[in-house]
Amino acid sequence: MIIVNEHVAKSSAGSDEPADVKENLGVRAYKQLKNDIIKGVFRPDEKLRMSALKERYDLGIGPLREALSQLVAEHLVVAISQRGYRVAPMSLAELHDIYDARAQLEAMMLGLAIERGDDAWEADILAKTYQLSKVSEANTPRSLLEIWDARHSEFHTALVRGCHSPQLMKVRNGLFDKVQRYRHFWLKETVFSEHALDKKRQEHDALVKVTLAHRKEDAERMMREHLMTPVPIITSVMQQQGIA
Question: What are phi and psi of 43, to 5 degrees?
Answer without folding.
Answer: -80, 160
